[in-house]
Amino acid sequence: MAKSPSSADPSRLDIEARVLEYGLEQPTLGQFSVAQALQAQGLKVSASTVRNIWKRHGLETSYLRLLAKSKGMNGGDKTELNPDEQSHLKRERRNRKLAAKAKGQDEAVSALRREEVLLAAARIFADKGYAETSLREVAAATGMQPASLYYHFASKEDLFATVHHLGISRVNQALDATALQHDDPWRRLEEACATALKFQLNPSDLAVVVRVDPGIRYPARLQRRIDADRASYEDRFRRLIDELPLHRKADRTLLRLTLLGALNWTRVWYRPSGPLSAEDIGRQLIRIVFGYGFQRAP
């Protein structure tokens, strides 16, 4: 007849009690760290054993162990969490809220977290610029450990490039939607300029990040990614201008570069309190750049 665990090996219950005790003493440590710490104290226990004990008592995650410590396990005394444990619990609660938000939606928790990081990064990049922003600041703004950012982004360069691409994608989508609304090629270009300026002159963080500043040069690899984004934006104006019925002597490339330069420079002198809206200025620029001289076809 097999003996009960208590009579066959009394130390087994002692090990279980110590695993539970240590798990509440150091609730943020994982099973491997706890097993190593207990082994150093002379207890023969593996990481899988620690994990199984925690699961039997509903303590398999750091979140559950932190709750048990703060509320008292099995009616025991409550223990006040130290600042690091409070911060860890706050992050875990945040992650659980994100998980609840993702439930029933197509997005996974990682996608929601990624979006949150991108928007926080856009805010900091817009405020401090690329050079002065650190991943530690972005992590702090989202309640993450700095190392956790590397799950989503390989480097600060990768993070900035992704934020920049998100901003360019937003304005490109708006330009495409605008173009579909108009049949007349002149009206299409006019409204595209209005749409572009509405985005560029918006004080949003993404708009600030994607603004063209010729005085700033980024690391070579990052600059190539930014240039590719800008090319996708400029290509839309190339197609719009190619569709115009212009005079045969009109230089479409020069007109495109002049127009884009005028759009980009508007943010330097634009004042929201002025008599014209961003959209009105965009429409006026078309009439100035194309409305005089020989550009229009007779």
TrEMBL record:
Residues 111-171 form the HTH tetR-type domain. Transmembrane segments: none annotated. Residues 134-153 bind DNA. The keyword Heme does not apply. Pfam families: TetR_C_24, TetR_N. PROSITE patterns: HTH_TETR_2. The keyword Signal does not apply. SUPFAM superfamilies: Homeodomain-like (SSF46689), Tetracyclin repressor-like, C-terminal domain (SSF48498). Gene3D superfamilies: Homeodomain-like (1.10.10.60), Tetracycline Repressor, domain 2 (1.10.357.10). Keywords: DNA-binding, Repressor, Transcription, Transcription regulation. InterPro entries: Homeodomain-like_sf, HTH-type_TetR-like_transc_reg, HTH_TetR, KstR2_TetR_C, Tet_transcr_reg_TetR-rel_C_sf. One of its GO terms (molecular function) is DNA-binding transcription factor activity. This is TetR family transcriptional regulator. The lineage of its organism: Bacteria, Pseudomonadati, Pseudomonadota, Betaproteobacteria, Burkholderiales.
